[in-house]
Description:
This protein is mainly alpha-helical. The chain contains 21 helices and 2 strands. A two-stranded antiparallel ribbon has the order 1-2.
Amino acid sequence: MIGVLHILSQVLGGLAFALLVPVLIALVTGDGALQSFLLVSGLTGFLSGAIYFALQGRKPRFDRQASFVLVVALWIVLPLIAAVPFALRTDIGYAAAFFEATSGLTTTGATIFPSLSVLGPATIFWRAELQWLGGLATLVTFVTILAPAGLGGLSSRGLASIGGFSDAGPDRIVHGLRHIVTLYALFTGLCIILLFFTGIPTFDAICLSLAAISTGGFMPVDGDLSVYANPYADGILTIFMALGATSILWHRLIFEGRRALLLEHRETYWVIAVMLIVGVIYAWNFAGIEGLREALGEGFFNGVSLVSTTGFETRPGGLAAIPDTLVIFLAIAGGAALSPAGGLKFYRIGAMTVQSIHELRRLIFPHSVRSTKFGSQPYDLALMKAIWANLVVSLGVIMFACLMLSLRLPGFDAAMVAAVSAFANIGPLYSPEWQIGPHWPAYSDFGVFSQLVMAATMILGRIEVIVLFAAMNVAYWRS
């Protein structure tokens, strides 16, 4: 437990530093949120220092079980602290503030605010910054903890190229963070520059870039992207949402020029192919009301937004322009495994598809010799058990969340879409535009119970829900 607290103290220190950026914005703009952010930053920094110095001289133990506990602790503690500025700045109450902070950190993008007019620039930026930090935290935990442990069937193949895998314990996390943040920040900076040159206001360009690369869905203004009426900006966001949905390992291989391994990384190519196919389907639906070029641009934007679980829209209800069953399936499927996108991940969908085909063939040719790989990934029984177990647990969480939400929402349709939106971390998917029958309440109309159910589902969807069961190992806590 000492190892967990040691790393947690450093993460809290990083959060205290991140809170200083809204402080600077408040100073420059005269935002009334200055004292709130300064207070939370100071108290978080004090807590970080107190834990860190209290543990000096004690050797931190950090085994695999401790790393699972760390993942769960981070995704619970960070939203609890990040919610405080929202609660201090507005009168929404702490439960709603916790919902907003969780939505940001998990890159869900579901907002409790019906209008951003009640927020100043500092708080709007804090929402965008939370998404970026949450996307970075997702990549680091996947690359340094979950994938090396093979949790839920995730593969660690090729991860040595990201760095830090000759180290053990906390050093692996630190080295992994250094390698990931460089590429992550580079993409973010490039997106900001390109959006600026399209005419998007600087502040909005920064917030949109933080959201796009992290596959979050928070907008810096009320409404959707149609308020900018800027097709060039839409095109740039399409590219960077696609980058956010593809594997960080694939990005690294491109920068290193490792062509042989690039060709073997088939998951990313499947993700891109599905984005293009879904984009064409959207474009077909938009073609009747727009010209061909506009329909294709808007179609590909919505296709990438859906598959990446970002949730940006170019018009109200744009994601609902294709059959709802397909939308829900794609949201649950999500993006690539080593990406900040939500959902089950294409890697697992591909593995289950390949195994299902093999099992069907066995019915006809029981003694046939089967391949031991799907794509470049070694295929064995232990891997498939982990993947199917993850599927069962994930669907169980969605079903339970749907049941809990149906106690307060007006119908099963609303509860199901809300549960999928939370678990797949694509909050804007739930919208009154979907409504079939009774009126669907907006997130701002959710009661405290529904808000907490949604927040818990967002966290479970983000941490690879099976890690929670690993962290609750009774034998570990007895020791």
